[in-house]
Amino acid sequence: RAKRVTGEQVALFSEEMKVAAFLRFTLEGDLRRAIGDDALRVVYQPIVDLHRRAVVKAEALVRWPHLARGAIPPPEFISLAEETGMIVPLSRSVIERVCADIAVMEPYLPADFRFCINLSGVNFMDTQLIPTVSAVLAAAGVPPGRIEFELTETVLMRDLDYATVILGQLREMGVRVAVDDFGTGYSSLAYLRRLAVDTLKIDRSFVNELDDGQGIAIVEAVIGLAHSLGLEVVAEGVETPSQLCALSARGCHLIQGYLFARPMPAESLLEVLGREVSMPGMLAGNTSVR
Ligand code: C2E
Ligand code: MG
Ligand code: MG
Ligand code: MG
């Protein structure tokens, strides 16, 4: 009897695996088509400067409205895209979309307003990254100073010599670089000093832990590190007034999170750009989308 149960479980498991493999296979084809058909969307999440009481940057976040399955979470299809190499055309299409949106918004943008674009490790290792970025920016007439690329700590630290070269080329082009999800990897002060980056983004997990007091030490360390290296520091995932207070009391005045605004379409971003930010939540509007 025990044997039969085990047998059934094995059969059930392999049936599930077949379904999973099939879903993944169809998803791969769907994603390939979505990239080809330019069906991916980009939304923008405002980043607020508490000192200037204004939106000073926005992070571009890709969205895939899947016809049959609804919205698929970015981490799910981004990892699929990374594994299949589709991340190269995907990122290109995101950069193109952001540049097209910037071209439309340009007359209304404050001089130093920046757009943050995520790049994956595969993009960072792609030998065509630099020529692609400069070609796309030039074609759209977007000044490189408008762009800040976000790369995770792990990607940057994997090969320090290589990272130094690529960051140098990006800097030469005039774009900026932020270290995303900072604090989740293993970088040391010495490593960070060698890299030509402009911004540290405190990972959402530490901001979350601020409420129960756990994240304070790490958040303080990251803010101190950023300041001593002359870098900007952005806190991401800020959801509560108490997190906001804890961050601003410790000298972090660049805030990204649902407390101020969720990611939104370009048209909505344009609407909130000119607003003076005096109250959390006031940018949320009713056109925001997740
Ligand atoms: P990330 O770069 O760390 O982006 C921040 C994520 O946190 C976004 O999730 C954003 O919507 C979410 N977020 C912001 N504020 C809050 C908050 O207050 N509370 C909560 N719970 N979440 C908040 P999203 O858009 O789902 O993206 C997830 C990840 O997918 C990104 O993390 C990034 O690693 C990746 N990703 C998104 N768009 C792109 C893209 O165009 N290219 C690449 N390569 N990766 C992307
Ligand atoms: Mg990011
Ligand atoms: Mg992040
Ligand atoms: Mg994150």
Low-confidence stretches: 286-290
Average of the residue pLDDT scores: 91
Strand content: 15-25%
| Largest sheet: spatial strand order | 1-2-5-6-7-8-9-10
Q: Shape from CA axes?
A: globular
Order of helices and strands: HEEEEHHEHHEHHEHEHHEHEH
Question: How much helical structure, as a percent, in the residues?
Answer: 40-55%
User: Can you summarize the main beta sheet?
Assistant: 8 strands, mixed, barrel
Q: Which ions, cofactors or small ligands are bound in this entry?
A: ligand C2E, magnesium ion
Number of extended strands: 10
Give the helix tally. 12
Category by helix and strand content: alpha/beta
Rg on CA atoms, Å: 21 Å
Measured between the Cα atoms of the first and last residue, the distance is 50 Å
Organism: Zoogloea dura
Keywords: DNA-binding, Phosphoprotein, Transcription, Transcription regulation, Two-component regulatory system
GO molecular function: DNA binding
Domain EAL: 24-277
